[in-house]
Amino acid sequence: MICLKICCDSKPEDLKPIAEAVHAVLGIPVTIRSKNFKGLRMERGVVVDDDYTGPVLEEVLQANKIIRKMPTEGVYKGKAVVVAPIRTSDGEVVGAIGVVDLVAALDILSVFREYPDIVDEVEESRKRLS
Question: By CB atoms within 10 Å of each CB, which of 4, 31, 43, 98 scores lowest?
Fold first, then answer.
């Protein structure tokens, strides 16, 4: 039986399956690292750096909380990112994972203007299929 485990000492190759899954689902850049070792950065379906850390990953490891911000340095300087801690069931931080924050880049007003039309379309499609 195959089992994935993450701990403070996970290395980039240990974290790669998680980064690949998140990247495949979201299709946006993903970064991940453990508490004691640098991790990796994925973009466009490939690992572009397997010795990676970034300022927001580091900040999350220290603060043990989700952080949304625009870094002032590093690869994602000036781009909104969101980074979350990876915790044990006891709440101890063992790593961090981050993505480019698409929500911060969305034009929220236009999304909400179109929302009623989208809901109506889905309802109509569902009725036709029933």
Answer: 4
Burial of 111 (0-12, 13-18, 19+ CB in 10 A): exposed
Domain membership flag for residue 86: yes
30 vs 99: CA distance, rounded Å:
5
pLDDT by residue (tens digit) across 91-113?
999 999 999 887 776 655 555 66
Residue 5 is encoded by which pair of tokens?
A: 């485990």
What domain range includes position 37? 12-103
Query: Residue holding tokens 């043990």?
Result: 64
How many domains does the chain contain in total? 1
The pair of three-digit structure tokens given for residue 85, joined into one six-digit string: 């801690």
Task: Write down the pTM of the prediction.
Answer: 0.79
- Three-state DSSP state, 9: coil
